[in-house]
Amino acid sequence: MNIYDIVFYLFAAITVLSAFFVVTTRNIVYSAYYLLFTFFGVAGIYVLLGADFIAMVQLIVYVGGILILLLFGVMLTNKITNVEIKTGSVQTIPAAVGVALLAGILMASMLNTKWRSVETAMPSATTQGIGMLLIQQYAIVFELLGILLLIALIGAASMARK
Amino acid sequence: MMQVGLNHFLVVSTALFSLGIFGIVTRRNAVMVLMGIELILNSANINFIAFARFGNFGLQGQVMALFVIILAAAEAAIALAIVLNIYKTFSTVNVDEIDTLKD
């Protein structure tokens, strides 16, 4: 068992455990903070898969953007002064059974599939390659995503201000 | 324990996906439902990057993961605007109490 495996198990444990706490903790602010550790663990897994640029984007966009946005959502939609920021769960036991079944089916079908796994060398820096793909093969998708983000931001701002 | 390979990453991704589904169906607060959606998007991203690494597809999978992250950002902004409007209208964001469309 080399250092790569140990680091993988560490990040996998951080990710799955904190994701479990995200969906089970009663206090919604604690859930948001556990989500921070989940995103961090996923970023570590990206690094282990050789995706350094995606890992940095994950940290910047998810932790710096989406998580803060979710926290704002929590703060703006709860009366912090008079009601405790707790949120109930409904139908936990049937949902747990159903989700366990789903996870079992997914794991079984996944582990019984012979995936084509090619042993390739760990890629070095990926930023240049991703940039070249974005301006050559995926140029139209890239531009469309830019327009989509613009529309989404204008729409969100105008919807939230009404 | 065996050498960490493709299956290990897929198991992590499956666990994240299941927990995200669990969060979506059980939590009452709309913001918590959003957090479940983010977990699911992250699990899909792990799959994309794991297959890009072990399936010898070069960087295509990583570019797809980048697109997913962009869409997640747009989705979070729009969804929070909707949640804020719901809160202004109903004074609650519990998704099981917003049933005005029902008889």
| CATH C-level label of the largest domain in chain A | Mainly Alpha
Shape of chain A: globular
The major sheet of chain B is characterized as: none
How many β-strand stretches of chain A?
0
Mean pLDDT of chain A: 88
CATH topology (level 3) name of the largest domain in chain A: Four Helix Bundle (Hemerythrin (Met), subunit A)
Number of domains of chain A: 2
CATH architecture of the largest domain in chain A: Up-down Bundle
Largest interface, counted by CB within 8 Å of the partner chain's CB: A-B, 81 and 72 residues
- Count of helix runs of chain A: 6
Task: Write down how many β-strands of chain B occur, each being a DSSP E stretch of 2 or more residues.
Answer: 0
Mean pLDDT of chain B: 89
Task: Give me the oligomer status.
Answer: heterodimer
Relevant CATH superfamily of the largest domain in chain A? NADH-ubiquinone/plastoquinone oxidoreductase chain 6, subunit NuoJ
Spans of chain B of at least 5 consecutive residues whose pLDDT stays below 50 are none
* Spatial gap, N to C terminus of chain B: 56 Å
**Proportion of helical residues of chain B:** over 70%
Binned strand content of chain B:
under 5%
**CATH architecture term of chain B:** Orthogonal Bundle
- In total, the number of domains of chain B comes to 1
Helices and strands, with pairings:
The complex is a heterodimer of chains A (162) and B (103).
Chain A lengths: L2 H22 L3 H21 L3 H25 L15 H20 L15 H9 L3 H23 L1
Helix pairs in contact in A: 1-2, 2-3
Chain B lengths: L5 H21 L3 H25 L5 H31 L13
